[in-house]
Amino acid sequence: MYFLRPVQPDDLDTIYQFTQDVGFGFSLVPNKKHVEEKLHASVISWQQKVEKPTHEFFYFVCESVEGEIVGMSGLISRIGIDQPFYAYHIINEKHQSKQLNLDREISTLHFLKAKKKPTEVCSLFLKKAHRQCDCSKLLSLGRFLFIASFPRRFAPITVGEIRGVNNEKGESPFWEAVGRKFFELPFQEAHIARILTPECIEEIFPQYPIYPILLSKDANEVIGIPHPQALPAAKILEKQGFIKSHYIDLFEGGPHYYASTHEIDAVANSQLGRVSHLVKQMEGKTKGIATNTTMDFRAVWTSYIVDKVGRVSIDEQTASTLKLKPGDLIRTYEVVS
Q: Exposed, middle or buried, 62 (CB in 10 Å: 0-12/13-18/19+)?
């Protein structure tokens, strides 16, 4: 069994290793001080009592019952608070000439400093050896069940930025065609700079529209396209009701997705009940995610039975992992393949 839990200070070395294993374009960079600061911010966020989102970090890790941490994921309660949120806005412009009988729509990229401050899902990583199991669903969907239990901590809109295309050497066609003309840095160095010194974005990036038709074919082909390793994450968001937006990442051109937070499927359709029966081995028909409803959050992929009045039967191992006993609140979400 695997379970989701809040990140702890002792996880630093593991998370730091993840930043080295993930490749290029991850929201955490392989800088130990940076990772330590983010984990500290997360630990503080889990401890705070808040009634509205104010830029809290919630990092989760997926751990086996044997103690191996195999992945992580994150939530930022509201982005654009401590530092602006930047993107390119894709706008189609009409170009017409009656004399030449021309009528065309041409895409333009507009530098955007976002005014809205949504919740963001971020930092999803899973070790390669575990990508064929249900850990990816637990890492991604478990976050939404946490939102469902604590809706006041999150914004009305949730966004997800999917990693864009780059190769094993860290080379990004979109970056080479646009950003590098202004930063004069390889993509991986520029990406680290944007994370550690985000103010450089507004100082250096061009503020005027960019016409993709003037860029290379390679750059055009990756605009709004997820990295192959990020495709499963994008598909999970789409199944949850997220829609691809007209915004892309400034550096890689990767797509942004958005959804009304209360309409995300796992938020809207998860069920709150109470633990009734504990059995040694569950042979129920329902398979999905079960969570406790406390800030000492736990989520597991398991089998369970919900009766007509919301009483939930789970096995003893699930109850122990979730730190639940009969009578405690439990949230469940049936995951349809």
A: buried
Mutual angle of helices 231-239 and 135-149, in 10-degree steps: 40
How many whole angstroms from its chain centre is CA 334? 20
Rounded to an integer, what distance in angstroms lies between the CA atom of residue 13 and that of residue 316?
Answer: 32
Residue 227 near residue 162 (C-beta atoms within 8 A): yes
User: Which H/E stretch holds residue 128?
Assistant: none
Name the residue among 112, 104, 105, 128 with its Cα closest to residue 80.
112
Which pLDDT value is given to residue 81?
A: 84
Question: In CATH, which superfamily holds the domain spanning 2-86+114-266?
Answer: Gcn5-related N-acetyltransferase (GNAT) (3.40.630.30)
What is the CATH code for 270-334? 2.40.40.20
Mean pLDDT of the chain: 92
177's tokens: 């065609």
The Cα 279–Cα 316 span in angstroms is 6
pLDDT 10s digits, 131-180: 777 888 999 999 999 999 999 999 999 999 999 998 877 789 999 999 99
Q: Provide Rg for the chain, Cα atoms.
A: 22
What is the Cα–Cα distance from 215 to 257, expressed in whole angstroms? 24
Provide DSSP, 39-51. Answer: HHHHHHHHH---S
Average pLDDT over residues 190-219: 90
Half-sphere exposure of 107 (CA within 13 A, CB side): 14
pTM (two decimals):
0.92
pLDDT tens for each residue of 61-88: 999 989 999 999 999 999 988 778 899 9
DSSP state of 162: P
| Chain segment 250-290, per-residue pLDDT in tens | 999 999 999 999 999 999 999 999 999 888 887 767 789 99
Query: Where are the domains positioned within the chain?
Result: 2-86+114-266, 270-334
Residue 108 contacts residue 90 (beta carbons within 8 Å):
yes
